Input
Amino acid sequence: MADDEEIILSELSDDELVLQMHDDLYDGLKDEIEEGTNILLGRGWTPYDVLTKALVAGMKIVGDDFRDGILFVPEVLLSANAMKSGMFILKPLLAETGAPRMGKMVIGTVKGDIHDIGKNLVAMMMEGAGFEVVDLGINNAVEKYLAALDSEKPDILGMSALLTTTMPYMKVVIDTLKEKGMREDYIVLVGGAPLNEEFGRAIGADAYCRDAAVAVETAKTLVSRKHNQLSA
Ligand code: B12
Output
């Protein structure tokens, strides 16, 4: 298609539209991402498919080019905002599955770190799977986590970190829980692009989850194991 020709999103096939949405996310075009999200939903796509195939896959391209120095912070911020506007439309739909209450999670990005897209995605997917989620937002010091654990009494504590400089802070939180004799009261899940399973084990988390779908499955397994242990 010629560059000066206006693209009518609703006239594209599903495959073309998804590719166009990847481009629009790359270019940080919020309105187009909202329109594309609504079009795919209107065509009967599940919210989960729109999320993973159109939004998350598009953000992966942005992430790769940021890593390779092709995109810079201001551009990535625009992409992130466009991504969030699509997620905003999907959020109530993902939460609407009528799944039975599974448990409660407190989640937040650790101190010094402002990345929140992945954390928000995990929160959305957990809600969709029937968990009650209390989101502490970004840049959380250990005191914030402790206060929330105390007031919310969740089954799960989730921590997110996207920077190699902030991921060690997860250990600070877990060590504080140990010092206070509270570690065994919670299932601790950690995630974020620079982490891996070995890191999760080394800092004493119950599990590292590579994405939101794994987070949901892991949470379900560990919560039901915990409930079985309590009732045994
Ligand atoms: C978007 C983005 C930004 C945006 C953030 C906007 C926002 N509101 O989040 C902006 C532009 C603000 C930004 C800023 C910076 N960023 Co940045 N950013 C990214 C980028 C491109 C994408 C991250 C993202 O949203 N991915 C999409 C989501 C869906 O994936 P995810 O976060 O990994 O989450 C999934 C899983 O990890 C997991 N998960 C995540 N959290 C949790 C939590 C739990 C409990 C569980 C179970 C699972 C889980 O499930 C999620 C969903 O499937 C990454 C590149 C990358 N490859 O990750 C760089 C990246 C993380 N940023 C990087 C850097 C360096 C920075 C800056 C320092 C840049 C600068 N010079 O200022 C600042 C840091 C500011 C700060 N103090 O935090 C580096 C980090 C390098 C490193 N080794 O530490 C990366 C890797 C880019 C690179 N160089 O390759 N960034």
Observations:
- Residues 73-95 form the longest helix (23 residues).
- The mean pLDDT is 92.
